[in-house]
Amino acid sequence: LTPLLPHIDHRNRGMRTRLGCLSHKSDSYNDFTAILPDKPNRALKRLSTEEATRWADSFDVLLSHKYGLAAFRAFLKTEFSEENLEFWLACEDFKKTRSAAKLASKAQRIFEEFIDVQAPREVNIDFQTRELTRRNVQEPSLSCFDQAQGKVHSLMEKDSYPRFLRSKIYTDLLSQTQRRLS
């Protein structure tokens, strides 16, 4: 394909790679070592059915749990939408910035990676939010991404989170924690 169309840019090659991987992606994880942080076998042993079940209580409960976050990230990867979570996490980290000198460079990096049109990991936000964020980043404060982060949080909560709770990743994880008990 590339030799016939030498004008295709690097973004299209990346898309072909992503599409080529589509057939290898699965909504199931029989081996959870790929999604759990730290020492995965120990982590899975420590994860209780009660904890994993609580992730269904609310999206924020899921996001606040280390293993819930890891499982949700794995699920988003199967949908090719992990940039939403990565952006949300980058914003959470950004809000902890205490150095004024680092604030501007971090804000610019987040904007270029996630917000700008044609950003490598562009999140799906409306034009007004994108432009407001662009203006906010010119004079960054700890709240300059709040509106964009809120929109992405809401999108994940209303769209991805319900699908995650119905996904094979989550149901398999619950089954594994329950099997350990029997």
UniProtKB/TrEMBL annotation:
<feature type="domain" description="RGS">
    <location>
        <begin position="58"/>
        <end position="174"/>
    </location>
</feature>
<keyword id="KW-1003">Cell membrane</keyword>
<dbReference type="GO" id="GO:0009968">
    <property type="term" value="P:negative regulation of signal transduction"/>
</dbReference>
<dbReference type="InterPro" id="IPR016137">
    <property type="entry name" value="RGS"/>
</dbReference>
<dbReference type="GO" id="GO:0030425">
    <property type="term" value="C:dendrite"/>
</dbReference>
<dbReference type="Pfam" id="PF00615">
    <property type="entry name" value="RGS"/>
</dbReference>
<dbReference type="InterPro" id="IPR044926">
    <property type="entry name" value="RGS_subdomain_2"/>
</dbReference>
<dbReference type="GO" id="GO:0043204">
    <property type="term" value="C:perikaryon"/>
</dbReference>
<keyword id="KW-0539">Nucleus</keyword>
<keyword id="KW-0472">Membrane</keyword>
<dbReference type="GO" id="GO:0005634">
    <property type="term" value="C:nucleus"/>
</dbReference>
<dbReference type="GO" id="GO:0005886">
    <property type="term" value="C:plasma membrane"/>
</dbReference>
<keyword id="KW-0734">Signal transduction inhibitor</keyword>
<keyword id="KW-0966">Cell projection</keyword>
<dbReference type="InterPro" id="IPR024066">
    <property type="entry name" value="RGS_subdom1/3"/>
</dbReference>
<dbReference type="InterPro" id="IPR036305">
    <property type="entry name" value="RGS_sf"/>
</dbReference>
<dbReference type="InterPro" id="IPR034949">
    <property type="entry name" value="RGS_RGS8"/>
</dbReference>
<protein>
    <recommendedName>
        <fullName>Regulator of G-protein signaling 8</fullName>
    </recommendedName>
</protein>
